[in-house]
Amino acid sequence: MSPANMSGMDRLVERFLSYIAIDTSSDPASDRIPSTAGQLTLGKKLLEELSRLGVRAQMDKNGIVYGHLPANSRKSGLPAIGFVAHMDTPPGLNSRGIRPRFIKNYDGSPIILHEKNQLILAPEQDPFLPGLIGHDLITTDGTTILGADDKAGIAELVTMLDILVHNPGFAHGPVYTAFSVDEEIGRGMACFDPELFPCDFAYTVDIDGNDISCLDYETFCGGWTEVNVLGRPMHPGTGAGILRNACTMAMELHCSLPLRLDPYYSREYEGIIHLAAFTGRPEHAHVRYRVCSFEENVLWEQMHQIERAAKALNTAYGFPAFSVSMRQSSPNIKTCVMRDPRCLEYAKRAMAAAGLLVKHRPIRGGTDGIPLAERGIPAPNLNNGSYHALSFQEMVSVTQMKQCVEIFLKIVSADAPLSPAFLMIR
Questions:
Q1: Degrees (nearest 5) of the Cα angle 195, 197, 200?
Q2: How sure is the predictor about 92, in pLDDT bands with cuts at 50, 70 and 90?
């Protein structure tokens, strides 16, 4: 029997709908972890659900829910494999009162989500839609997000555990799950306890780029560059030859930076210098840049580029108006992943067996895999079958959700043969 047909798969959609009924949007203004009560509500629900299944589960003081299913295979040397999905949804986007719409056997025609607001999914603007013909879909009604980022991933992982528990003949090694908090605001994994997640390698299950065929294992190296600018205030009516406005000086610095690194123009493996915050008055201004690259040495070169531009302006103005500080905030997970490429081998083998032509592309951002990598756990990303995250056009393919469960089962299977050929990720 195919794992995808095992008992438990029929509850996948039911689980997903029960999870999106809980508002779990995170709050960057909160100083708590988790930042919102809804995440604790969902966490307690998941804790109860895993415990009823017979999974060893616990919730830590920060709301992260950990699950563990011991190995049932007699084979020795099987790796401990983990999966991570996050409970929160993005702040600032309505996730209350979600009214999902169901489309059976999608026929390829435009999908009108909200006629008045002119929210439409159409093949002309959404090139992934023709690939979903024949799928069962769940969409929004155009007034909220759907919450598939990342509750589709959570539903898939709980369903995987359900299938493993109720099919003891399905041999597997140690399996761990973690449902994290505050991923959307970049906080929750700071409290992650690796002792409750003792994996050889893991996978984040999340949306990235609307393509279930992607196995993603490269993220931006991220950094921050802070620039303080001191002006020379003077009454504007009598400031000729004396007044130096810190705001216009900061603008001069920004305009001297390479335009090709502006996020509007940058793509694929190109880096970015993103003006993330600007505050100022004539006497003082502060500029904060988010700087990213896929190579650590290039990241630092981009940050030093800002520093050199500031020093050049200090020389031009004749006084130390600009001061710059730099720090790296996150690594590229590829370095950690390549220390144990089994995580790529297992995933590619499973995805190919599920009928996917495996692709790879860089993640132009971050995932929960970054803090895992910082703790020494390789964690590439697997997509969860959802599309258009962070928008009222968010949708998910139920057909692909089932395919994801099948992939996860094939990853943890103790009986699947491995081949060095799968190390060749294209």
A1: 105
A2: confident
